[in-house]
Amino acid sequence: MNVVIIGLGAIGRMIVDGVAGDESPVRLAGVAVRPARAEEARAELVSDIAVFTSPEEIVAARPDMVVECAGQAALRQYGEALLSSGLDLMVVATGALADGDYRARLLAAAEKGGARLHVPAGATAGLDGLGALKAGGLDKVTYVSTKPSHAWKGTPAEQAFDLENLSESTVIYEGRAEAAALDYPQNANLAATIALAGAGFDNTFVRLVADPHAVTNCGRIEAEGKFGHMIMEMRGQPMASNPKTSAVTALSLIYALNKETGRFVI
What we know:
The chain is of the alpha/beta class. Helices cover 36% and strands 28% of the residues. β2 (27-32), α2 and β3 form a beta-alpha-beta unit.
């Protein structure tokens, strides 16, 4: 399967390394970056990996799958053009899907192009359980994301709290999944993923927590359904170069890509 990734940050670099080698069923055909980074990217990558700077260039290359791993702004730049051209798209910046109008445009583009919009698990687990409970009647889902205090720098929490001097675990946001996903685009994309996989935005409650003593990024899902109750917790090591994101996010993309090529699927 020929794949193009959008973004060459912490997640993108881990994917490049993760699919390298002749034994991998995934072939990295190209990487899309901002025009200002094109030469730098060409110098970093092996010669048979193309460097793209626009949706049109990716469409012309006709990969089997495009993977967005560069944030909500990149998804908005590339998403509709790729899907409407018939290219399947896997997205990490699912927080953008909390915008109902934009989500509708992406799905319309996918319908037009006969393409599929893929949402991997990211730095969580249990989406299959949410889906099962949803099929039988899912009443309420609570998602709690706890990260070290410094991981919330550059977010609205930095204006409301003295993150560097917190002495105890502190709730920095409580409320609906839409606001969490859109206001914390680098930290809380999973709020949208979990809402879409489960009880929807109206019945998904989100709590974001800054913990000065935390050494991992912890996501906890609690779901109440007609046929069951699910509790799931994932503790992932933050990426050294981007503590807002767990390394599990990149690993989930590698897993999802490998799964797309398999004859035996779990």
